[in-house]
Automatic annotation (TrEMBL):
Coiled coil: none annotated. Nucleoside triphosphate pyrophosphatase. May have a dual role in cell division arrest and in preventing the incorporation of modified nucleotides into cellular nucleic acids. Its EC number is 3.6.1.9. It is an enzyme of class 3 (hydrolase). Belongs to the Maf family. One of its GO terms (molecular function) is hydrolase activity. It is found in: Cytoplasm. Keywords: Cytoplasm, Hydrolase, Nucleotide metabolism. Its cofactor is a divalent metal cation. This is Nucleoside triphosphate pyrophosphatase.
Amino acid sequence: MTRRLVLASASPARLQLLRQAGLAPEVVVSGVDETATRSPRVAELVALLATAKAQAVARQESDALVIGADSVLEFRGQPLGKPADAADARQRWRRMAGRSGVLHTGQALFDVQGGAVARRDVAVSSTTIHFATPTDAEIDAYVASGEPLQVAGAFTLDGLGAAFVRRVEGDPTGVIGLSLPLLRVQLGRLGLTITEFWDR
């Protein structure tokens, strides 16, 4: 019988991504206070946040594979999570236009057996994003849509923001919120295969 797969995230994009990949996770929101975690390096920060989310949900489980994930855009060395408000999103886009950033997604996979974490695997997917140069009117319209206020870095690849991304170097699924190729590798390191979790 296939093990239960639990997504420790409220992100609809992550859930949709897993479903499109043939997986059927249950969703348990971690409730982790993301502002309490700090690190001087963005890649380390997302790994710590993903681990905290997976750990919080793993404590509630007796037998499951728990996936925690977190994404942050690194732009000119600074971490950019979700914008504080519309003015913040607008200002970010005016700074990012025509430039590049790195979207880091941390993933923590916890194997819970008998009410305890038996094994864990934590890794980070990093993808370079080359932004287009939208006009002020396009930026205003995008911010008015509300989409950039809900996501790390104030952009998406699976929504309206895709029109404002010129090129991606790396894994696009990691930018959407959860790297599927990395998840396959993580499962493999725990002696599992992604195909055994296909919902068929």
